[in-house]
Amino acid sequence: MKRLSKWWLIGAAAIGLTGASWSSAEDSPAALDKLSYPPVLAATEQTHTVNTAVYEEAGTGAEIGEPVKWPLERVNGISVTDDLKTLYELKGKPKAEENDPLFKDERTFVYDDCRVGLYDNFVQYVMVPVQAGTIEIDGKKLEMKADTLRQTLGTPDWTGEDGIVYKRGQRAFKLFLDEHTGKLLSVHYFHTATD
Fold this sequence. Notes:
Layout lengths: L1 H17 L10 H6 L4 H7 L3 E8 L6 E7 L14 H8 L4 E4 L6 E5 L4 E5 L2 E8 L4 E4 L2 E4 L2 H8 L4 E3 L2 E6 L2 E7 L6 E8 L4
Antiparallel strand pairs: 1-2, 3-4, 4-5, 5-6, 6-12, 7-8, 9-10, 10-11, 11-12
């Protein structure tokens, strides 16, 4: 019985990894045209043109509208794909280091402008408190105000009781807001595998 269960598990994993599935009459091209992604998946597949910025055409003085894309690759210079070595190269030695007594592989580096969570020497999240005053997103410095960030980043992918979320691929950017006043409390940038 164990042998049969083992092969069933291996077969199911192979189907899941390869994307193969059981075929049916509903797989015809006409039937597939009728299908649509669920709203959650559709939101992750869309192009993320967030806001329209106004630029001046070089030499003409004429303003042109260009879509601004925010890939959310770096916050305060740090990416969630960075490792400890890269973090030291970008930010230097932290002001303080906090270790979790229960989870030995987790620690937090405290810098003047942010807190960086690490797991096994890889960046898991970047938290920027409102007290920092500014935040750098993909090389652009912005005020730490909810209205400024909302206007700049555009329509969020999700809205919750405690804030709003922008998702780009496997990266997420969350504005934590006071539920009564709507004021910004902090910004968290993280890999969606850690949410």
